[in-house]
Amino acid sequence: MNETKPKTLIAYGTAFGATARTAEEVARILREKGFDVKVANLKEEKIQDISGYGLVVVGSGLKMGDWVGEAENFLKKFHDNFENKELALFISSLVPIEEKEGKTEQVERTRKVGLENKIRKYNLKPILTGMFGGVIDYNQPGFMMRKAMELGYKSVLQKHGFKETTPGVYDLHEWDKIRSWATELADKVGNGGG
Q1: In this structure, are residues 50 and 3 in contact, taking their beta carbons and an 8 Å threshold?
Q2: What pTM did the predictor assign?
Q3: Whole-angstrom Cα distance, residue 116 to residue 124?
Q4: Which of 67, 82, 115, 182 could form a disulfide with 60 if both were Cys (CB 3.0 to 4.6 A apart)?
Q5: What is the per-residue pLDDT across 52-80, written as a single tens digit (0 to 9) for each?
């Protein structure tokens, strides 16, 4: 196994903070595996250059069914620079609810829109992709939260054991799944991507 770990950038865009927590957990696992990791919230930090990184992980929350602007802009800006790097992508979504409800068509639609369409649009070659749970925050005004309430997610969330972390906020993170994904990523990178 290759002992030299590439310098790693985890760049993310988040709608409600869930993707930030996922990015930090992926970074924690990679650091435990010996990676030098920088985590960048693209809303707060403008990345000008990625030439010093061998592994780039890009994450985004989904807002109105698409990537948040900062993460999309990052892909748009740097997609030509990923050629000689190892790349991984992940999204935060409502997938855990959809999976528990047996809505396989919705899960596949989320995968297509959130991952496959981006890969095709920017001609990306990620070594790993992931779909993780996000956060539903009924305190956030706006169309998506109203739609979520209309769809009756609150009762579905409670039925499947998702708990309110604070009033009106449901955390859909699946930490074991996120940690397994980060471990798989570390192993793939350590073995030259395969």
Answers
A1: no
A2: 0.90
A3: 10
A4: 67
A5: 999 999 999 998 789 999 999 999 999 99
CATH of segment(s) 8-133+174-190:
3.40.50.360
Phi (first) and psi of residue 62, to 5 degrees:
-105, 130
Whether residue 53 contacts residue 8, with contact meaning beta carbons closer than 8 Å, is answered with yes
Amino acid at position 67, single letter: W
Q: Which of 72, 52, 71, 61 is nearest to 8 (CA)?
A: 52
For the chain, how many residues are written? 194
> Letter for the amino acid at 32?
E
Distance in Å from the first CA to the final CA of the chain? 11
**In DSSP terms, which residues pair with 13 in a beta bridge?**
60
- CB burial readout 9-47, b (16+ within 10 A) else e: bbbbbbbbbbbbbbbebbbebbeebebebebbbbeeeeb
CA distance 188 to 194: 5
